[in-house]
Design goal:
It contains 2 helices and 5 strands. It has 81 residues and is α+β, with helices and mostly antiparallel strands. The chain has a 5-stranded antiparallel beta sheet.
Length: 81
């Protein structure tokens, strides 16, 4: 098993980008504590080998969330009672 530093972007919008030492197996990162031993994150999607890649993924998630919220606001503003 290979261990390396990964940056998790999965929880970037709620808790920020976090750095962990994780075991890498089958394209997945297993960081261990504070997560359960069986918890894994997909490399390139939820976990990243570079901080820059994690920041780019978090920025993309932020843009998607803003677009979804704008759509929700427009729907609520269009409602009449």
């Amino acid at each position: 098993m290979q261990t390396q530093t990964v940056w998790l972007s999965k929880y970037a919008l709620s808790g920020g980008i976090a750095e962990y030492q994780a075991e890498i197996r089958d394209g997945r990162a297993y960081p261990g504590k504070p997560f359960m031993s069986f918890t894994s994150f997909q490399l390139g999607r939820e976990a990243h080998e570079t901080k820059e890649a994690a920041i780019a993924a978090a920025e993309e998630a932020r843009k998607k969330k803003i677009a979804a919220l704008k759509k929700q606001i427009a729907k609520l503003e269009a409602m009449t009672f």
